[in-house]
Fold this protein.
Amino acid sequence: MLRINELKLPLDHPETALRAAVLARLGIPDADLIDMSVFKRSYDARKKSAIMLIYSIDAEVRNEAAVLARHAKDQYIGPSPDTGYKFVDAAPPAAGTPRPIVVGTGPCGLFVALILAQMGLNPLVLERGKVVRERTVDTFGFWRKRKLDTESNVQFGEGGAGTFSDGKLYSQIKDKKHYGRKVLTEFVKSGAPEEIMYVSKPHIGTFRLVKMVEQMRAEITALGGEIRFQTRVEDIMVSEENGVRQVTGVRLAGGEEIATRHLAIAIGHSARDTFQMLYERGVYVEAKPFSIGFRVEHPQSLIDVCRFGPNAGNKLLGAADYKIVHHASNGRSVYSFCMCPGGTVVAASSEEGRVVTNGMSQYSRAERNANSAIVVEITPADFPSQHPLAGIDLQRELESRAYVLGGSNYDAPGQLMGDFVAGRPSTAFGSVTPSFKPAVHLTDLAPSLPDYAITALREAFVAFDKQIKGYFKEDAVLTGVETRTSSPIRIKRNDDDYQSLNTRGLFPAGEGAGYAGGIMSAAVDGIRVAEAMALAMAAR
Ligand code: FAD
């Protein structure tokens, strides 16, 4: 098999044009092209009236060696790399080794468990929240009736934080071993659309994610794994062995103790009680930067026209996304984060008396508004103290402020963009109807974030208009607050064996540990951690 990269065709090309382009590029007759498939498809929309599709094609041809030799100097033609997943070569564990435990069923925990199960290592998976169907009822109940279940919500439950999301499946992580391909392959096996394998910015949307998560659970259990829901890990047991701290088990909320010497902690960025417990048990954690800001809603049509011009609405392109950055004059970086085309803003609280926003969409991305978090980067120097968990204190403080500003009933505080920049409270919506449920309460958002963030955001909204014409829109709606952009701590681990810096057998994993940000990177980290656990378990 050989691969041709950077094969460009016009957006509206007929299907037959692709085969013709491959033949022309390789300089071979039709009879010599045995088979071909699209490995990747992206687009170049820099020239809006002439948007180009860019393909990477895998082709099976007659006399491949000769064809490759003819194109030896062409950097875009070469043998297709082997992107298949290979399990690590780990010996089976010694008899009597307790089974590995995985805490959390977000994308990270699910992939730790799946790989361990595929290797025959029978993981036990512990999840504080409910199975995804019951969790969906609780989450939608919160959005409709303002009744928060602190153990079953957008953050907690089967599938983790990404279940009610846009389901974007791309990431900028370095992935030399093609683990991302393994993740996509497993997702397709679990019901994701085939196209996620080849489109450059795949996404799945919420409803499909729910079904996929159930399928993955079925596969893990069919392979000998066990998953327990509504089972919160409240404590870990650690012993001193020959001067080294070693994990020996977990204690559950009901008091039950389970022994293990291999424990993956994939708890996401919102398990504040578990972070506190790990810190109190002496596990090494440190504060890390994250970002704070608002969700912003514009009409999706505005973004489509700006990005795609006359090709706005083209089915292949779908609803347009954007990525923007502004370096404010006070030294702060302001950037778009987790942009959800044609989606909705969601209430993502997991603690009583606190309001926090996020975004989600369905596969169709057909809702009227585009939403994105617009956030300001902050560092531990901005936190209220130098305590390793001080970032959590700041998040809590801002989420509590948002709750009060919203009316103390889980409505979110909001403001029109023009009013926010001008520094006056909003009193009535304009042409953009906010999608957040239960509701957006119009107010002045200035007291919701520290002054440096407000100043940087005001400057950025005006500056973004140069990047996306029309972005500074008087009646675009800002909804507050966005505080859970990434984990406020890092549970540091060794680079080589993925075990905690000071606690053997503890494998910090995924977003909560500070080693991922997003579904794909969390899932890839899950694969790496599973491999490290399998190697650590191998009998010596
Ligand atoms: P999580 O997914 O947070 O999973 C952690 C799990 O651990 C949870 O299920 C939790 O209940 C469980 N847990 C926590 N503590 C305990 C305990 N003590 N005992 C037992 N179980 C415990 N990313 C994208 O890439 N694309 C998107 O489109 C996208 N949209 C998003 C939309 C929303 C609304 C949200 C909230 C997030 C979105 N994200 C998106 C981010 C993405 O979901 C996260 O980066 C990802 O889920 C992190 O995976 P994780 O497995 O590390 O942690």
Q: What stands out?
A: The longest helix spans residues 519-537.
